[in-house]
Amino acid sequence: xxxxxxxxxxxxxxxxxxxxxxxxxxxxxxxxxxxxxxxxxxxxxxxxxxxxxxxxxxxxxxxxxxxxxxxxxxxxxxxxxxxxxxxxxxxxxxxxxxxxxxxxxxxxxxxxxxxxxxxxxxxxxxxxxxxxxxxxxxxxxxxxxx
Length: 146
Hints:
Elements: H1 2-14, H2 19-25, H3 40-50, E1 54-59, E2 62-68, H4 69-77, E3 96-98, H5 107-111, E4 116-121, E5 124-130, H6 131-144
Parallel strand pairs: 3-4
Antiparallel strand pairs: 1-2, 4-5
């Protein structure tokens, strides 16, 4: 009964919105990506410049995983590692992906322990959504219905 009530509330909040609508509502649409051959120092610089905490990793245009600031921190904190190391061994291949056509209400279940969900149309990465993006979208949606 509680699960059904939660689904009804969730459906009411999201309306007919799809993942693509949430992505389109983002203030920033730039996809900042990494390659497996990138060095740790390059990734740190990109994260700082773009004020992000994770980015998709692409190889030959295809999504191969995610690199996060937490992974970089763990790597650098271990003896023998350097900012000149490539990120290839640090890539997390377990990435939550979603199509832009999927109902937006399903995003909550996709996050789980993930920091981000990668929006993929076919095999093309079209964006990245974080929990904060969902919060922004819902806050704006709720505000417009008050």
